[in-house]
Specification:
Layout lengths: L1 H23 L1 H4 L3 H20 L1 H6 L2 H30 L5 H9 L5 H30 L5 H4 L2
Length: about 150
């Protein structure tokens, strides 16, 4: 159930960031909308990754868990940026059809925009990790016996 909620959040952020924002031109109207979407995207992707790898997150150190969550989120962000770059190269001249639709939703800016997007993705993952890891890892730690607590 937790994984379904996380996947639903990913889908919602994706829909807002592509379909709804395109419909109402939020990227053109609001200067930092793209950065906000990458921050939210990083957060919900990290949530999904944390739930998907929950068993592994509980087994490794907190730094290992942080590396899993942030690293996987960064990989998704890099894949997204590569899709944007490839779309700009391959589909910019498409006038209609699926290629034009792909270009409409997956085209990016310059190097500065790409780097800012990746930083926002990682900051979103770090924010999720700061909220998620203390609660999940605390549950994974077995309670100490009364004798061990007094030593």
């Amino acid at each position: 159930m937790k994984l379904i909620r996380a996947a639903s959040a990913v889908a919602l952020v994706f829909l807002v960031g592509t379909v709804f924002s395109g419909q109402w031109e939020w990227y053109a109207r609001y200067t930092h909308f793209d950065t906000l979407m990458h921050l939210l995207g990083g957060f919900v992707i990290a949530w999904f990754v944390a739930e998907l790898l929950e068993h592994d997150v509980r087994k490794v150190t907190v730094y290992g868990a942080l590396g899993l969550i942030v690293g996987a989120t960064a990989l998704v962000g890099i894949a997204w940026e590569l899709a944007e770059y490839g779309s700009g190269l391959l589909f910019a001249d498409a006038e209609s059809g699926l290629l034009n639709l792909f270009y409409r939703y997956f085209h990016g800016g310059d190097l500065g925009d790409t780097l800012l997007d990746l930083i926002a993705d990682i900051l979103g993952a770090l924010a999720l990790s700061a909220l998620y890891l203390p609660t999940r890892r605390a549950r994974a730690t077995p309670p100490q016996s009364a004798e061990a607590a007094h030593t």
